[in-house]
Amino acid sequence: MSFTALHHQSQPLLIANVWDAASALAAGQAGYHALGTSSAAIASTSGYEDGESMSFDELFFVVARIKAVTKLPLSVDLEAGYGDTTERIIENIHRLRQLGVVGINIEDSHVVNQARSLDDASIFAAKLLEITQACPDLFFNVRTDTFLLNLDNALEETLYRGQLYAKMGADGFFVPCVTQPADIAAIAREVPLPLNVMCMPALADFRTLASLGVKRISMGNFIYSALQARLLTLFNEVQAHHSFQGVFNDENH
């Protein structure tokens, strides 16, 4: 089944968000059907803040290592594109396509001085059209940060942007931080693109999300963060108990 077809099933595509070759292998062993990179997790593993603090070449190296160990469909979180110009963004995407990447996440916001702000919808849409026309063989999952940034009119703005992006070649619509069932149902109904939601504490279970019209469920960097918290616990236990017994008693070892 093609990556696009995975977004048009009766049940949502649960995508495993990975950050290196080891996590990609684990996702494959767990039976996932597709992988997506987590930009925040990849940045963190190299000591960077999220928001394109690392270079595209560093990101490319990580993606290349992931592709070297798995044949699962891989979508790459390209954030805002890692380029000051549309031409550079297209060049980056072509490089990823040559690795065998099948999809891209691209977002309508930028991080400047660790502060995220929403792009003008019309300007972003024009850039999106140019990019999708230049890269017609990839699945473009377009992310809007209306709910992430907690806009007062988040639902209204999300619907406007989703409908606009659909006309500009988007293949999927990613709305991180949306959790209310009524909002999710409205977006799935009003935007003619497969809806992607992300792991959040208040997010409904997968069966409910399917009934609301969700077509893709992703993890963000939450699995990675949970593992880092467990790693810190293990390091603390070894130091506190002057023993490695806690490492070998771990039920997940």
Automatic annotation (TrEMBL):
Tell me which domain of life the UniProt entry assigns to the organism this sequence originates from.
Bacteria
Give the record's keywords alphabetically. Lyase, Metal-binding
Checking Gene3D superfamilies in the record gives: Phosphoenolpyruvate-binding domains
EC numbers on record? 4.1.3.30
The enzyme's main class, written as a single word, is: lyase
**Ranges that cross the membrane:** none
Q: Does the keyword Nucleotide-binding apply?
A: no
Q: Is-annotated flag, keyword Acyltransferase?
A: no
| GO MF annotations in UniProt | metal ion binding; methylisocitrate lyase activity
SUPFAM superfamilies, sorted: Phosphoenolpyruvate/pyruvate domain (SSF51621)
The record, for CDD domains, names: ICL_PEPM
- Write down the PANTHER family for this protein, in alphabetical order: CARBOXYPHOSPHONOENOLPYRUVATE PHOSPHONOMUTASE-LIKE PROTEIN (AFU_ORTHOLOGUE AFUA_5G07230), PHOSPHOENOLPYRUVATE CARBOXYLASE
Name recorded for this polypeptide: Methylisocitrate lyase
Q: Which organism is it from?
A: Phytobacter massiliensis
Gene name?
prpB
